Amino acid sequence: MRAGSTLRLIAAIVLLGVSLWWAHPAKAWEAARTADWTWIGGALLLVAADRTLMAYRSIALLTPILRAERPPVRALLRVFFVSTYLGTFLPGSVGGDAVRTIALNRLNVPVADAFASVFVDRFLGILSNLVMALAGLILARELARDPLVLAGLLGTSAICIAAAALVFSRHAAAAGAGFASRLPGSHASRLTSNALNGLRQYGSERQVMAVVFAASVAVQVLRLLQAYCLGRALGIDLPVSAYFAFIPTILIVILLPLSISGLGTSQLAFVALFSRAGVNSADAFTLSVLFLGLGVVGNLPGGILYAIEPPERSLPA
């Protein structure tokens, strides 16, 4: 595990260096220095909107399975924002999901239910990204021939199919139960079985799943609008349709386990894709840095909550 993290860190540094060299550091700095803060302010407002929708998703998925036993909304909001903040510094998105699962369990949510809600939230978020990326290919069909884009689309599709099978398929549930029964140790077998049963609860909650999926698509739309605002801040004169074509695909590429938190891969993807629309490499690189930075800023409220939280109730770092 440690060797894999080291390799991803090295990959992130190499890819970041290559994309920065490609963009020319002085030109990238000039693009950032002269950015229009009015448009950046608009992007920040959109970040607030997407975090609100994401928080709603996490609470909506707990409501049907916990019902009257659901923890207070204020406590659930704290869990969402703090886990999202801590996830910024943990490997991939899995680290933040693990923190959220543990934190929900500390609120007396059964661990199987906590895991299931976080898993389904992540699944619907990835599925919405995949749907947006496939729709974007209608506007930029040549991207489907790019090996990195194709790998991202195929990998994401495989993840979504497997996740959907665990939630909706009886055959997959039976296979999972058989797998759990063969695990060494009763504790591991019981945990796996309970987690699979937790996921199966959502198979009959299709209305909730549909609403959360719609919210997830709205989050993806907000993200491409954020990129559009940042592009306007840098003076990039492209229509919204260009961002609709590129941003979901870039987010798919970022999901590939090639680096840490998309560092390096996102810069390279922004430069490679936006250059096809005539954007110079310095502006594309700066746009990628601002886009990642916007996500970090959106996670800062969780950092404030974590800082003022009593130590005895703090989430694991």
Count the strands? 0
Structure annotation, total helices: 13
Fraction of residues in helix: over 70%
User: Strand percentage, roughly?
Assistant: under 5%
Which structural class do the helices and strands define? Answer: mainly alpha
SSE order in H/E notation? Answer: HHHHHHHHHHHHH
- Gyration radius, to the nearest Å? 20 Å
**Straight-line N-to-C gap:** 18 Å
The mean pLDDT is: 83
Sheet having the most strands = none
General form: globular
User: Spans of 5+ residues with little confidence (pLDDT < 50)?
Assistant: none
Query: What is the count of distinct domains?
Result: 1
Give structural notes.
The chain is built from 13 helices and no strands. The relative contact order is 0.17. The chain has 317 residues and is mainly α. The chain has helices at 2-23, 25-33, 37-66, 73-87, 94-106, 111-136, 147-168, 170-181, 186-200, 206-233, 240-255, 265-274, 281-308. α12 runs antiparallel to α13 (281-308). It has one domain. 78% of the residues lie in helices and 0% in strands. The longest helix has 30 residues, at 37-66.
Helices, strands, pairings?
Elements: H1 2-23, H2 25-33, H3 37-66, H4 73-87, H5 94-106, H6 111-136, H7 147-168, H8 170-181, H9 186-200, H10 206-233, H11 240-255, H12 265-274, H13 281-308
Helix pairs in contact: 1-12, 1-13, 2-13, 3-6, 3-10, 3-13, 4-5, 4-13, 5-6, 6-7, 6-9, 6-10, 6-11, 7-8, 7-11, 8-9, 10-11, 10-13, 11-12, 12-13
